Structure formats: C-alpha cells, structure tokens
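Handout, section 4.2: multi-component inputs.
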Amino acid sequence: MGSKKRDSSRVTLSDVARLAKVSAITVSRCIRNPERVSEDTRVRILRAIDDLGYVPDMAASALASKRSNVVGLVIPSLTNSVFTDVLKGVYDAIEETRLTVQIGNSRYSPSKEENLIRTFLQQRPAGLIVAGVNHTEAGRKMLEASSCPVVQIMDVTDKPVDRLVGFSHFEGAKAAVRHLHDMGYRRPGILTARMDPRSRVRLAGFTEEAQQLGIFEPARVVSTPLHSSVGLGAQLFSDLLAQAPDTDSLFCNNDDLATGALFEAARRNIRVPEALGVCGYNDLDISAEVNPSLTTIATPRYEVGLQSVQMINAALDPEGEAAPPPVILGTKLVPRQSTRRRPMPSVGIHSGETT
Amino acid sequence: MGSKKRDSSRVTLSDVARLAKVSAITVSRCIRNPERVSEDTRVRILRAIDDLGYVPDMAASALASKRSNVVGLVIPSLTNSVFTDVLKGVYDAIEETRLTVQIGNSRYSPSKEENLIRTFLQQRPAGLIVAGVNHTEAGRKMLEASSCPVVQIMDVTDKPVDRLVGFSHFEGAKAAVRHLHDMGYRRPGILTARMDPRSRVRLAGFTEEAQQLGIFEPARVVSTPLHSSVGLGAQLFSDLLAQAPDTDSLFCNNDDLATGALFEAARRNIRVPEALGVCGYNDLDISAEVNPSLTTIATPRYEVGLQSVQMINAALDPEGEAAPPPVILGTKLVPRQSTRRRPMPSVGIHSGETT
DNA sequence: CTGTTAGCGCATTCAC
DNA sequence: GTGAATGCGCTAACAG
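Output:
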C-alpha cells in the first residue's frame, strides 16, 4: 500500500518544554493564552517551538479538552454557486483562525440535514453553521440543545436557534416585482423550481407584492420541484407562454432560470426588454454578461460566509458576550438591460429611475 | 457565549463492553473488523451499541492509532465549477466510508499549496488528494515522503508521486483543434487565461496539433494571467479580432471563455458557426444551453472525484496491494451547434445546417 | 477468537 | 506565574 515511512517520533509538548526549560503545561498555556505567561518564558517557549518545528496534535487536544476545532457546515449543495460562494467566504474567514471546516451536504433533504446535524454534534464541534432556518423538529431540538454556538445562515426568522446571519428572500422578491411594475410591466409571471424553503418564500413575496399592486394572476405562476438549471429555465418559460401568452415580464427565482428564459426568448425572437422584462435573483457572474444583461437581485452570499465564521469565533472567545442579535444583510436590485430603463409611456405609470 | 449544556457523560467503548459482557478491545475490534469477532458476540455488541447510542470518539481513535480518518483535499478553487464537480464526486464517495474530508484551497498558488500539504501531513491524514501534478520542490518531496496514500488528480504525468486519476489536457486540446479542422476551419485562434499548468498544457496541445495541420499562427494566440470568466472571454475575443481579424474559429481554454466569446460574437453579429466556429473545454451545464449550443471537450470531473476517494480507500484496506497504475480517464469531444456539422466544401463560406 | 496492559499528546484541576 | 498528577477514549502489542 501507500505507506512509505513509519511515524518518525513526533515533536511533542514535552519536547518543547524540555528545550525551553519549563513544564509541558506551561507550553500548552503559552500557546493558547500567551498573555498568561511571563514575557521571557514566552520568548523561550516560542523559540523552542520554532526550533523544533513543533505542531500541536489536534486529536490529543480534542480528546483532552473535549472540544474539537472543527466547525461543521451544513449546506444543501456543493455545486450550486450560491453555496459555493458561501463556502468561499467561510474558508476565507476560517483561515485566519485555528478552526477547521467540515462540510456536510444535505442535498436539500431535511432528513439528511437532520442526520448531518446529529453526526456533527456527536463530534463535539467548536461550532455549527447551518443553511436555512427550516429544520426537522428533531434537528431543531438538537441544535437548541447543543453546547456549541450555532449559526443559521442565508435566511431570516423571528426565532433563530442561536445566532443568525442572512437576508430576506421575501423582501428581495418584492423588490423585484416592484421594479418590474415601475418599469411599466403589468403582467408579470414567475418561474420557480426546486421548492426549497427559500424558493417558497420568494414565491410568497412575489405573490404578495403582485397582489398589492393589483397585477397578480395565478396562471402566470409556473413552478416545479425539479432542480434549477439553465435548461429548466427555458422549459418553464415555454410552459408559462403556453398557459399565459400575454405575460409581459418574468421574475425568475434564480439567475439560472432567468438565463434559460433569456435564451429561450432569443430563440423565439421575443425582444427583451421591449416585449419581455426579466428579473433574476442572486446576481451570478454570468448575469452581467448575457445578452441582454440580466436585471437581478444581488445577494450577499460571500459576506454571509465570512460573518458566520466571525460569529462562531466571537462565541468561542471567552470574553464573548451573549448571543448577539441576528444580522440581516441587505439584498440589492441591480437594474440591467433585461428590463426597460424607463416605464412605457402608454400603459405607463411613473418613474423608477435608478441612477 | 453560546454554550447551553455541560457535557453529559458520553457513552464510551467500555459502557458498550460492559453491557455486551466483553472487553473494550473486543468492541473496538468489532467496529473496525466485524469479521474478526465471533458471530454471537458481534450480535450482542451491535445490540449494545444500538441500545446505548454509542458513537465512536474520533479524536480518541486518532490519538491512539496515530491515524486520523481525515482525507485532505487540496484544490485551487472553491468556486470554479470544474473543482466543485470534483468536490461533489469526492463527497459522494466519501459518504460510503468512515472517512472525512478536509478541503484546502490553494488559490492557484504553488506556495499556498505547499503550505496546505505541510499542514495536512502534520495531522496524520488517512490520505491526501491533490489537484495537479505540478508542485513546489518541497511540496513534492513532502508528498513522496508521506506515510499516507496520496492521489494526484485532474492531470497526467509519467512520474506520479503515488496514485493518480486524471485525464490528458494535451490530448483534449488536440482533439479540439482536429475537430475545428475537420469542420473546415483553417484559421483557428486560441483564448486562454489563468495560466495554470493545465491551461498551459492545453495551449501546448493546441499549438502542436495546429502546427501538424499546418494552420498554426502565433498571432491567433491570446492569453492572459487573469482568472477566467465569461466577461474575460468576451474581452479576449475582441483582442484576438483586433490582432487577427480573419480568424475563423476559436479553441477556448474553458467553457467560460467560450461562452463569453459566443456572447461577444452575438453582439458583433458574427454568425456562429458559419463565420466562426467555437470549441470550449469542460462541458459545463450551460454549454448545452447557450445559443448556439457550444461544442466542447467533456471532462470527467465528477468521476475523478469519485475514483480518487476509492483509491484512498483501497490503499487503506489492509488487503490492499501496491499502488495501482495511474488511471487515465478519457475526455470526449461533444459536437454542438457552435461548429459546423459538415466541413465546408471548399474554402467557401456557407452551409452548417443542424437538423 | 478474546483479554490485559500500556500509553497516544494534551488539558483540567488543583496546588504552590 | 508555574508545576504535578491524572485521565480524556481509544487502540497496539502482545498473551492466552
């Protein structure tokens, strides 16, 4: 097999201790709380560590302290770029710390999520970051009973388990509908797939706002439990056209669907934004590049990743206070060429300039 | 802080042992090598485990055995979908095992990669999966000296460190050029960015094949160290057109660049595939959806992820043999509408029907 | 096939 | 500010 070397006696705390002429426990302290050790022993110890190339053994540390340095991260997908952006934020932030990430992929399944939560919790993690605020009952109970900090991300709720950093999908969807209306569109449809909790909330936001504006029409709602993709966006748009041909605009639950709809519109020679306004959700990289460029709701995914780790860190800090209030980040409408720059004069209502 | 509960005396091996009326070590064995324990003690032990809800303590296990169950995975990006596909394969495969993944993001930096290799190796990982075959000298030495199985992925080489599962970028690029030639294009350019080792190899493949076909033209090579993106593809295509306006086809180092080039061609009313053939690399989801759909070289990224874990597993198996030969997976040209279906009759410009 | 003994490397608790 | 003793939960190496 692959083994090539036997374990060359590892450098341990006591090796360092001997060289620095102190006891092992002092070295241990010096590493974890440098300020609790006198100036010059600290210097000696650090030198010894450096000379010997000492590296702490995490397993031993975890065993003795009953606390690992592992942060569990539970997300529903490893390929959806919404979550890979979160991932990047998490990793960028975690590198500054002595923590380590372990990912669990729930595949959008609440029961898989529950299992992951259980598995992680059994490992005495330093903290847990979980996407969403909807869990199985058992899952939520475990999170609440957990002895480590828990951060829910990517959504908002009145009753977070512990800490939370997310944004409102409801408000984002409403802003999208409002924008379509401001631009003069009066017959908006919605394309939505993979009906996970956050998609549902966006649909609810669409519905509420459209109703308030008096432009809601059930026949213009197209949804499917299938996973989102560009190809599916094209398909759903075709479906919508079949059942409500006079639709004049689209809120798509995400930019993949929107991109697909845009492509399908091009194939059908439907002019965007003149004959059809399109607004997506998330602001992926490609959204600025398609023809015409895609109006969308930008979501702070990377930022959520960063802040979730900072919250874990803050919670772990012995000076740490009680759990801070939830952090609700903003979403932002990014107007682009897939919606008009000005409302139509005819059915026209008023302004909506965004300089 | 976030703590809510004190550690409620954990269920340990000896608890299970007591209930099953055996010794702790037998329980330990039963968990790791069920077949080395007699039928009925095994049954008793498994029942006891179940009754008590016993969960092994990985930290203790790692400490005692000097071997963790962590597989280190070093990749250059967390957002590039080429690597998130690998990631998915790795996670799908690892779930079948008792192993666990830890990701290191090298950000395409060899020195960061070296640091990650060092850090991982210090944790006595069960195995290491590393993207690419190009490392710093120190990095390679560490890998060679490592006592755990190492799998290099996503590329090929004569001298793998240990195990390898990848595919040839050189051959993939050559196939692309050949296809463009077969379809009647005679003035191919190449767009390439983020000159990592694999991109360079693809460029070399392009160059060699084009030279052999007698259609190589240095002025049609456009490259930049910037990271690939759809927007950059548009930019590079514009640059190429400025320096070699008669270019009749494009091999793009990846599908992001190709997509950008396709978008830019649309903006300039350059007809694809009639006036311009385009071939990308990787076969991302979107490539089948753009207009016209993108001819590309499909790469087995998910499969590489899966197999890399299987290799680690095989190496860990005590029955395991010596390191198997490298596994070279195939890439596949996927002809789509961005190249003609038939070669041009002469040098003439027309046809390109796609039924 | 099963048990005994020993100790992995570190952190907790309490002395000093 | 520093140290000694003790054990975290498990597995290696033997013995039977």
